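Annex B, item 7. Sequence and structure tokens for protein A, then protein B.
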Amino acid sequence: MNNAMNVRSMLSVILLSFALQVSAQPKLNVAGGTSLDLGTIYRGAQIERPVTLRNTGTDTLILGTIEASCGCTAAMVSDTRIPPGKTESLLIKFNSKNFTGPVHKTVTVNSNAAESPRTVIEFVANVIDEIGLTPQNFWFKDAQVGKSNAITIVLKNGGKDTLRVTSFRTSVPAFSLNIPSGPIAPGKTFEVVATFTPSAPIPIITDQVFLETTNPRQPTVAIPIYGNAKPQK
């Protein structure tokens, strides 16, 4: 009789211990849900959105790698360990400089959460470009050393107010740009001509030229500069 009671007691202790081990699990909850709407963004703006991560489980939640769907997005947390019942802030950053129109991106949080080891947080935005560029970069393919190489971009004022381009800056040597001396009316365009006169060969050109404007929503417009420079034939 005593032996049977002892066996039952031991089994109860084992089952209780197992139940406690099973129930002691971290759980990741994203406050407000896993879908974010960043709304309307003017091209070139860098948006930051904090997201609250809560551990609704009974064991410490350990955050692993955080994956962004593209280089335009970054995400970071200050602490990768979240005790039960506690929260941590995940900061999502989105750079809109290379986008126009609807945008959909994701951030994936890896963790030791038993039910959701990979939690996907998605966000959408609508990027408006009041200062349009056609094409959207300067591409100097096989530019000749010692020769002036010219490329034209059409700049359009898509806003409701008169636009002025006040100056430009770039670190590309021997690069010049004509900017409009007067205002550009809403809906009107201006041909921006870039002239590149390299003095030496350059294998790869990956840079930008920045236009300073009077548009309060897009005070700086970044135009990529790509290409290379070859010896003169």
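Protein B:
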Amino acid sequence: MPVAGKMHEFMDRSSWIRKMFENGARLKAEHGSGKVFDFSLGNPKLEPPVQFQQVVQELVADRTAGVHGYMPNAGYQETREAVARTVAQEQDTPVAGDHLVMTCGAGGGLNVVLKAILDPQDEVVVPTPHFVEYGFYADNHGGVLRHAETTEDFDLDVEAIEATVTPKTRAVLINSPNNPTGRVYGAETLRSLGVMLEAKQKEIGRTIYLISDEPYRKIVYGGVEVPPVMAFYSNTLVVSSYSKDLSLAGERIGYVAAHPGVDGIDKLMGALILANRILGFVNAPALMQRAVARLQGVSVDISPYEENRDLLYGTLTEAGFSVPEPEGAFYLFPKSPIQDDAAFARELQDRLVLVVPGSGFMGPGHVRISYCVSRQTVEGALPIFREIGERYFG
């Protein structure tokens, strides 16, 4: 075999999104892009805010000597401090620049965290369904992913998480707003989670980190607020990026922020900074670090996402589908009308509608619909969803 056996297995496990991408390209070539309705990828369609364009033009014109050279491995201090001020406000916690590391997106940030905290066979508990790559990230650093069921409406089930914690548990990883469900975990749920984790730490005699993956924090609807996770548990790390709220997915800019009360905060920060270097990230991109330092508080106008959500949610529910209304992010996660979610995704594909089977997210019996797409894509697919609803529920 020309590749590692583990990678061969991983490619099979992650194949759904890749297959949908490949199928989408093929179908668009055959039928024309305007006749294919692609909801498979979470790739933001909105352009970055105009302020971003202005800031980047100013930064590119900077001829200061050494402006493109190496920097401290944690990132520019002025950037760390600017981002930390925002995080401190969001988390209602006195996070300082020295508690923050700039990273190559949230994916890079999660790998930095797991490299820093995991020993071989340490366990990471993740509620299901979850982002498909979490298991790969844990494996990168010798960890083992353990799944905990959520409630019927995809809220955290603190008792299920508690039952999954073992003496090998090093972290609980949550994602709110959630990909793929759009669920935002409420303050009371997070408070209960924090109380439980405090008790389990004492019981097993080791630090359990709470890692909160928050790249969709600013993508919320109807007045929903994302609670400050750090306010409920001191051994918390927040990982985020500017891929969604500034539509900078390709620029790979994010951060890891640690609660100042984390056990052994100085050692942890040292481990995070070293991990950022030895994983090969070295630094988050210099130009983007300077840009986001000047763009704190700026985000895209998410009203097109909300309009897409409302159109799709309304059509799907009227057609008979069971689907929770997303509170954030830009995904719907309806139940498949048949048990085999992959077969249902293929049926939609035959109608030139591309979605991802929920099995790829450890959520079998559902499909994920990504609505960070054009209005034309949404409107073109609505009659097809109505027809399929009539077939199964009419």
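Comment on protein B: The chain has two domains: 5-48+300-393, 66-293.
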